Amino acid sequence: MANIFPRWSNLLPLKIAVCAGTAAAGVALAFTYYATPKALVTGYQPAQPIPFSHKIHVDQVGLDCRYCHSFVDVSGHSNVPTGSTCWNCHQHVQRESPKLAPLHRSMDTTYAGYDGKPIEWVRVHKAPDYVYFNHSAHVNRGISCQSCHGNVNKMEVIFQANSLSMGWCLDCHRAPEKNLRPLEEVYNFNYNAETYISNNPQLGVTTTEALGLKLKEEFMVKPKETCTTCHR
Q1: pLDDT at site 80
Q2: Helix (H), strand (E) counts: the chain
Q3: How far apart (Å, rounded) are the C-alpha atoms in residues 208 and 197?
Q4: Which residues face 143 on adjacent strands?
Q5: Under DSSP, is residue 41 helix (H, G, I), strand (E, B) or coil?
Q6: Rounded to whole angstroms, how far apart are CA atoms 130 and 97?
Q7: CB contact at 8 A, 111 and 105
């Protein structure tokens, strides 16, 4: 009696198993990456090639966020500073510090170990690739760096202060008035809403909630909550 199934069908179960295994491995790898601190977990604090202290630079020296992250208010992405940004100061300040050896290798042509390669900073805050987030749209409508990144001005080593999860973002989109600030206070890590109200009686508000609602109306902030807002 002739075979009902062609000979190639003998390998069909193996092919199905290989495809299913590959798909399962892909899902496992994706979950392993996006469920790790690199993408989601609060507290992620990797070591950096240079022990850069935000506390010293922001709190003590008084640097504005935009000096280093110069694209934050004009671009969808906030840039990591180039070596030249650091070198502007450190070719004069703390020049002999051994902690700055990677900077010297990158920028100082007179340095014995000079190679001209960029400093390989380790990224701390990262949304999944399928999420669209525009920095400039937020900071130009009264959302401070502090609202998302925490008290960076107190961090010796930068870490992820908030989960940056979908639910966390939606909480803000549903009640943005809780996080809105006057535009001149967006980069002020010492901002206090109650003090701002008392110093500006012309605003006509007496509570932080009223200030938030006033700014929401003034800035015409109407955050969307649909899936297509972030998943494009």
Answers
A1: 93
A2: 10, 0
A3: 8
A4: 180
A5: coil
A6: 41
A7: yes
DSSP of 65-134, one letter per residue?
HHHHSTTTTTSSSPPPPPHHHHHHHHTTSSTT-GGGHHHHHHH-TTSTT---PPP-PPP-----TT----
The residue behind tokens 């280093």 is 68
- Using CA atoms, how far apart are residues 200 and 179, in angstroms rounded to an integer? 18
Do residues 55 and 153 make contact, with C-beta atoms less than 8 angstroms apart? Answer: yes
CA distance 101 to 189: 30
Supply 188's token pair: 């002020």
| Best CA proximity match to 216, nearest among 142, 144, 145, 148 | 142
Looking at the DSSP assignment, which residues form a beta bridge with residue 180? Answer: 143
Record the tokens describing residue 222, joined without a space. Answer: 């109407």
> From residue 145, how far is each of 46, 64, 113, 140 by CA, in Å?
20, 11, 36, 11
Residue 127 confidence (pLDDT): 85
Mean pLDDT by 10 residues, the chain (232 residues): 65 77 77 59 92 96 96 94 96 95 97 96 90 96 97 96 92 97 97 97 97 98 93 86
Which is nearest to 183 in space by CA: 73, 46, 87? 73
Check residue 17 and give its pLDDT.
77
Predicted TM-score of the model (pTM) = 0.79
Contacts by 83-90 with C-beta closer than 8 Å and gap 24+?
83/107, 83/118, 83/119, 86/50, 86/119
